[in-house]
Amino acid sequence: MRFSSRVDVSEPNPIIVAQRKAVSQGIKLTKLNDSNPTVHALAPECLSGRYTADARGPQEARELIADFINKRDNRTNTSTPSTLNPDRLYVLSSTSQAYAWLMMLLCDAGDAVMGPTPGYPLIESIARLQCVNAIPYPLHYDGSWTIDVPRVRELLEDASLRIKALVLINPNNPTGSYVKQEERKELLQLCHDNDVAIIADEVFYDYSLEPFETNARFAGEASTLVFALDGFSKMLAAPHAKVGWIEVSGPEDDVYEAQKRLDVIADDFLPIGTTVSQHIPELLAYASSQTQKVRNRVNNNLATLRKTLASWPHCCVTALRAEGGWNILLRVPSCIDDDVLALRLIQDYHLVSQPGYYFDMPANGYLALSLLPEPTQFIEGLKALLQTVDTLLCEE
Questions:
Q1: By C-alpha distance, which of 2, 31, 4 is closest to 16?
Q2: Where is the Aminotransferase class I/classII large domain (predicted)?
């Protein structure tokens, strides 16, 4: 695996080497230049804990998260290579930050990452800020969403594109599609053969709607270099719970080289602070109940959606299959312009919508619908949408 030249991993100077040797021998060293106020009793009482500056995130926090993941994913079973080692985790503020760090790790300016389309436009935005090209690969809908694997192969094997990472959103937003079992096998092999890392964003993984039985996480995959992203924002349905993490897995040599460089990046930008990490035990305690609460809401609203569409007189709106996540894509008559529908919803019902072109849908006539609202609000919004579609069709 080839990494970017932006990260300096040159050998340390003799002073650092001697310092590390002394520490490994249990020798306590005192720093003449120690500028950490928490060591010298200068921090405020409300922040009295000692700051350890662990680049990967506080050790205790990583151990707690690793223990939670091992129990959640049952990583002692035969389908998973091994239990998660906390040293394979990097705890940081968000998956957005994780994307930025990984682009620094893998890409020089002008290199590229691949991301799905339709998809949420975050990857392109972060890539642009990192001077990295974002190359789309298509998803197609034929009863369910599938990845165009031949197109992915064609792009990966084109050396002129300088592709360094394949981003897989599992499940994707807004299509709600998990990576299928047969796609997973081919993509892992393609990335392995072409020295391309996988960035697997699995923040919505636990929110299954209409899934296939063979879904699986990429986290913990051993066959090729994988950086799996997850965090509290979606797990707790709390976007202000800014704790995310990167799990590194793959062939041992690739993991070693990746972590050597990722440690440099993490040390430069620093992980989450004590004021946040001290709440991690409390947040983990809420994880299971919060996830179940959101599961119940989105599944109940999905059932309401299906029932309402089936009973609406002469309904011209359909809901595409959503395997997982919080959103579902609706298909509305393509003779209605996306902007006309969105503007009429604002005008008549004070409702803001997201038409399909926000996510690079291939044609007119798509709309993303959240399954999160309380039931009364959800059904009112849905009926307003259906009524607006009927009105606009009558005006045609």
A1: 31
A2: 53-361
